[in-house]
Design a protein that fits this description.
Chain lengths: 227, 260
């Protein structure tokens, strides 16, 4: 006999309607299974109490709610039944949202410290990235020509330079001379700023001049590549 | 044997009249063809566009001079001299703007030569001008924007300008601004190789950032002790209440402020 059949027969046993064969089998199981025997004792005491107190107690205001609460308590005390009657498995988010977030003081403090560290780290990374894109001279200021930002900028200039070289054949000699003259002027400005930055890597004026000269170079290349 | 000029002249005069006439005719034809070929290759364009006040004018040229001046009419008159026959100039008008984009209209055609523009516009027009090379002259404009951008070389002259946003930029060439700074306005002047001269009323109020690695910044009457100088290469500070923002950058030239 399994526990499920046993607990169904317990009701018949307490009601006195069980057959002799079932009663023998049930008793044999109850001697071997402490859980089922405990259920029998609980149920017998409830039924016995009800019989002795019949007509002497008032019904609760919400009888159905009471029974639901009782059933929940009983099911919670029986792991196997609770598992069998549990809700379908919820998703991670569902479980997370349904979780009660009651943290102890050390847990709370640790969480706050972790959040502060994460936010600080993210801010530093974002600032470094953005400053790299907006002011590529910072890398030049450090004379670090292996820096990826500097290299990327040089690649962009190289790309537009190639486009200009392809289109140059269509230009008049005057236009070619104009381009070469202006490119030379800008390159001199770039070279001067780079030299100044090598001497003084944190010189703001040289950084500004290098930035603007590089932007001018890019603009010149883009404008002439359209011709 | 070398003949003397006299002999040669005598020889020419002794030719038959019919041959002499033929030589004169050929010479005259050649003489006529040479200048007339230039005249015939040039195209001239002249159009008028009725517009409302506060119209925006955008002109993107490749090469040539651009002249913009105001007049007392609610219309734009566009005149252009086009050097090359193959060049296209297709002005496009919408409700609030007139756009002439020589760069796009002639993309991939190589060098289309000089196109010289003259625009007469209402005084309140916003002006946005670009050219790869050539001079830009703008005068007598009172509007929200005056922008003159020369990608390479060309002088920029902005005369009698009262605009809330002014941008003048070139690589090689002088920049001259004569006008006034509006409250809350922004003014940007930048050259790589050329002088920048700014002529404004003596009571102008503005916040200045002027940079010149060559240390050639002359504020003259506008200098005050509140200015901060970084080795004379960059000067920052307020004149008056600093109600407008002025940025001047010159890599290798003079920056001069003059009082009107």
């Amino acid at each position: 006999m399994n526990c499920e059949t046993c607990q169904e027969l317990i009701h018949d046993l307490i009601d006195g309607s069980i057959s002799q064969t079932d009663e023998f089998t049930l008793n044999t199981h109850l001697k071997q299974c402490l859980d089922c025997d405990s259920v029998r004792q609980d149920l017998a005491s409830i039924v016995g109490f009800c019989r002795t107190q019949r007509g002497q107690y008032e019904a609760p205001p919400n009888e159905r709610a009471l029974w639901l609460r009782i059933r929940n308590v009983v099911e919670a005390e029986i792991p196997g039944r609770a598992a069998a009657t549990a809700e379908p498995r919820r998703s991670f988010i569902g479980r997370l949202m349904g979780h009660t977030w009651e943290l102890s003081l050390p847990q709370l403090a640790t969480s706050v410290v972790a959040i502060v560290l994460l936010v600080s780290l993210a801010t530093v990374v974002a600032l470094r990235r953005s400053s790299g894109y907006v002011t590529p001279v910072t890398q030049v200021a450090a004379s670090n020509e292996n820096d990826p930002v500097w290299q990327r900028q040089q690649q962009v200039i190289s790309y537009w330079n190639q486009r200009v070289e392809l289109n140059k054949v269509r230009w008049s000699p005057e236009m070619r001379a104009t381009f070469d003259r202006n490119m030379k002027t800008i390159d001199e400005a770039v070279a001067n700023a780079v030299e100044d930055l090598k001497r003084n890597p944190h010189d703001e004026v040289s950084e500004q001049m290098l930035n603007e000269a590089l932007n001018d170079k890019l603009t010149l290349l883009q404008d002439f590549s359209d011709l | 044997m070398i003949k003397s000029p006299t002999v040669m002249k005598t020889g020419f005069l002794t030719w038959r009249p019919s041959i002499r006439a033929a030589v004169f005719a050929v010479g005259a034809l050649l003489a006529l063809m040479s200048p007339s070929s230039t005249v015939q290759a040039q195209q001239k364009l002249s159009k008028r566009y009725p517009v409302a006040k506060n119209v925006r004018i955008e002109l993107k040229n490749v090469s040539g001079t651009i002249v913009v001046e105001s007049w007392n009419k609610d219309e734009i008159r566009l005149s252009a001299t086009i050097e090359s026959k193959k060049a296209h100039v297709v002005p496009r008008q919408s409700d609030q703007s007139l756009v002439v984009d020589v760069m796009s209209d002639n993309r991939g055609m190589g060098d289309v030569g000089d196109i010289n523009f003259k625009l007469q516009v209402p005084v309140n027009s916003s002006i946005d001008l670009e050219t790869v090379r050539g001079n830009i002259y703008v005068s007598n404009i009172n509007s929200g924007l005056v922008r003159a951008h020369v990608s390479s070389e060309g002088d920029i002259e902005l005369t009698n300008i009262a605009a809330s946003h002014v941008i003048a930029q070139n690589v090689i060439g002088n920049i001259f601004f004569d006008g006034e700074f509006s409250r809350g306005g922004t003014y940007e002047f930048k050259s790589n190789k050329g002088d920048i001269t700014i002529r404004i009323p003596g009571n102008s109020d503005f916040r200045l950032v002027a940079a010149s690695p060559a240390r050639r910044i002359a504020l003259n009457d506008f200098w005050n002790n509140n200015f901060k100088s970084q080795d004379g290469r960059r000067i920052t500070g307020d004149v008056g209440d600093g109600r407008s923002s002025v940025s001047v950058t010159n890599f290798n030239g003079q920056i001069t402020f003059m009082r009107k």
